[in-house]
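Researcher: Sequence of Di-and tricarboxylate transporter follows. Predict its structure.
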Amino acid sequence: MIASLVEPYGALIVTAVIAILFVAFAREWRSPEVSAAVAVSVLLLLKIVSVDDVLGVMSNSAPITIAAMFVISASLVRTGALEAFARWVTAGAKLHPFRTFLLFLIAIAVMSAFMNNTPLVMLMIPVAVAMAREMEVSASKLLIPVSFAAILGGTMTLIGTSTNILVDSVAQRAGMAPFHIFEIAPLGLVVAVAGIIVMVLCRGLLPDRTTVSSLMSPEQSKKFVLEAVIEDNSPHVGKQARDVAAFNRADRQLIDVLRATFSLRRHLNDVVLQPGDVVVLRTSVAELLSMKEEGDLNVPESDHMQALGARSSSVVEVLITPTAGILGKTLRHLRLRRRYGVYPIALHRRGTNLADRLETAPLEVGDTLLMEGASEDMQRLVEDYDLLNVSQPSERGFRRGRAPIAIAVLIAVVFGAAMGLMEIAGLAVIGAATVLVARCVEVDEAVQAVDWRILGLIVAMLAIGVGMENVGLVETIVGAIAPHLALLSPLFALGVVYILSSALTEVVTNNAVAVIVTPVAIGLATSLGVDPRPFVVAVMFAASASFLTPIGYQTNTLVYSAGGYKFFDFVKIGAVMNVVVFIVSMVMIPMIWPF
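Model: Prediction complete. Tokens:
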């Protein structure tokens, strides 16, 4: 019944669903994978796609390949395979800043060609912050280049980014021959070189923003937290905590009041002190913390407090990663003080301090939290929830002895794909299984390393792609635009496809663009009587070339808050990057893949 009613309007309905979905992506009504899942649900209800269609998508090789590459990339991180490089660039930043900066970008681009961009950028953010400190420049001078170099490097091989794998999968479904792992390398190499030259020559377009991480050296961030109980005879009893002079000296700051183990921090301005309350003070004056032999503290008697203890604490900046275990949760719900003994100080999102929503804002990818606590407590929090300490490189215990195995597995996967021994999906699965068996990465770490949000989005978008096929939407779109482009050169049509893909990528997720635009590009090329391969390559590169905004590509989102950037900081240098990559692509694509 529903199918018969919907059938005459199928193409129109799917167009409307995709349009609304893209608006949802751009306006961020919900996370991309949730919005895409809702769109698939609508198509299921309207019988435009069947349950078998959706289940059939699960057999697509792209999500499997991407998940396996996430695991292999995690093995490189967990074994410390890149640790020596991080130490080298940090050490060389002070002596040879320009040369080190250039080699840093080149190395990121090369590494990004063979491992997932997101974990690589997460690993390099604290390295860039440490480099900036050594070079005595703002971290904002380095973090955008880190993201851009990873994006550029991802275009050099088929496994360099999930977008490449996804476009190849969609093209194969349309009947095209699969891409070789290094088929796009000549174009990707030229694009990467051109992009790095732009970043070096246009360094003046990079902003000089101040971040907590760039301001504070590890020594400067060190403070002490003192806990003291209010005694029965204390004159502070009955007073508002904020009004007590002893808590508001130059060498002390009140950060919390504990009553029966419950934190009153959210209502600190209204707290009236009672006997037994524990006040938590921040101080950097070591003399205040002179210890008795048994480990207690000497607090001046005039303060009428009995010291319970003190511990060294640090103020650090923590980045919410795509695989963080606290995504979507609030600080109020997490109760980090009770669980870890750390205190959230500020929450930054896209250049904005969410001071009034510190406790209630659901945490999102790219948010940065300013936290205070003992270094061991902070490290435990970071490890438990897979967060990123922006202030310094990871202190996790590396399995260094297994690093050669992780590197060998990656080389074997690349070599096997280059020699055509097996499809990339099969090689990637074997590689992932090998690093798990060799314990380069533990099973729970591997599960945490996979960005399930991206995989969910890809599966949902592939199902929407099936819906486009079922209603003939691709043919309808091609039939509408092909007559107008037939009078022009194939190069002009190629430019239109590239610009459309690039523009959409800046406002919606690149994987969604890949699934929607690739079949249209293939259909357009076929109707024009030319080889569709150059058009598919144009989509592949344009969907990855997201430099203009901080929301078009996940690595841009990660460095957005970490670098203290404003939205238009990306626009200034990103516009130049987009133009250069477009020109290089339009010149090189027809040379490598003739029409």
